Structures are given as C-alpha cells and as structure tokens.
Amino acid sequence: MIISQRTPEHLGELLHRMIWKNSQNEVCMCQKYKYIIPEIPPSNNKFIGRNTRWQYQAEKKRWAEMIAWLCRPKPPTPIPKAQVTLDYYFGNRIRHDPDNYSGKMVLDGLVKAGIIQDDSFSCIRLRLNGKYDKSSPRLEITVEELEK
Question: Along the 148 residues of the chain, how does pLDDT read in single tens digits?
C-alpha cells in the first residue's frame, strides 16, 4: 500500500495500488487516486435555460484549470477505464438534486488534465454522492482504475 504524505498545498493523494487476480487468474494492478477541491462546482441550474454561454465557458475553463492544478499526483498515463466518484460536501442542508451536479465540468477537467483518457460511458462509471460539512464545503474526487 502506498500513501503519499501531502501538505495542504498538495491536496491530491495516491491512495493505494491494489493487486488481485482476475477471472483468468492473471495478476492485475489497479491505481486509485483521491483529490480534494476546496469548493463545489456550480449547479447546472445556474446555466441551463439562460443566456449565459460566455459565463458558462469561463466557469468551465476555470474548473479545468483548477483540476489540472490541484489534482496531483497524476497517473503516468491517462487512465483508460475508471470509476469516478464525486463526493459533494455541501455547506448547507438545503435540497440538492444529483442531476444538477452531474460532474460535467469536473469530468472535462479530468480529461484535460490527463487523469482519465475519456469521459464517455464506455470509459467511466460515475458515482455521485451528496454529503454535508458546514465547516468545509468541498468536492472530493476519487478515480479508480478498472480492469480493461
């Protein structure tokens, strides 16, 4: 098991490498990365049905840059098939719909940063979780390599 010691400036963390045997009794290795982003992406409701194309593009670019900067360490090569889990820690207990936090900006940022190869259905499994943390709203991203 590998765990990197990181300072708050380096919020990404390589959690561990798992070794197992697949159905053909071949040894497989899987990498799992966890990244913490100290804010939550905007709800899709902020942009859908509004004339805010330029605001959306600016926010999407900001999130891609933030993910590229904060999501470290990165895998040596983009992960071709992954399970991506997005844990949203909201600062309030109001109702948040999962479809409004689909992860579009986050997934595009992970592709642009070279962490995952592609964000299509054939390449990722996506899990969304909503939680509450008044003192530290954030987004935790877990990227786990899947068997090819």
Answer: 233 333 444 444 444 444 444 455 555 567 899 999 999 988 877 777 667 778 888 888 999 999 999 999 999 999 999 999 999 999 999 988 887 788 889 999 999 999 999 999 999 999 999 999 999 999 999 999 998 7
Is the sign of the CA dihedral 52, 53, 58, 61 positive or negative? Answer: positive
Q: What is the pTM of this model?
A: 0.78
Q: Which residues contact 86 (CB under 8 A, 6 or more apart)?
A: 101, 103, 106, 126, 127, 128, 129, 139, 140, 141
* CB 104, CB 139: distance < 8 Å: no
Q: What's the CA gap between 87 and 140, in Å, rounded?
A: 5
Q: DSSP string covering 36-105, please?
A: EESS-PPPGGGTTTSS-HHHHHHHHHHHHHHHHHHS-SPPSS-BSSEEEEEEEEESS-S---GGGG--HH
Phi/psi class of residue 20: alpha, beta or left (left: φ > 0; alpha: ψ in -120 to 50)?
A: beta
Judge whether 134 and 32 are in contact, CB under 8 Å: no
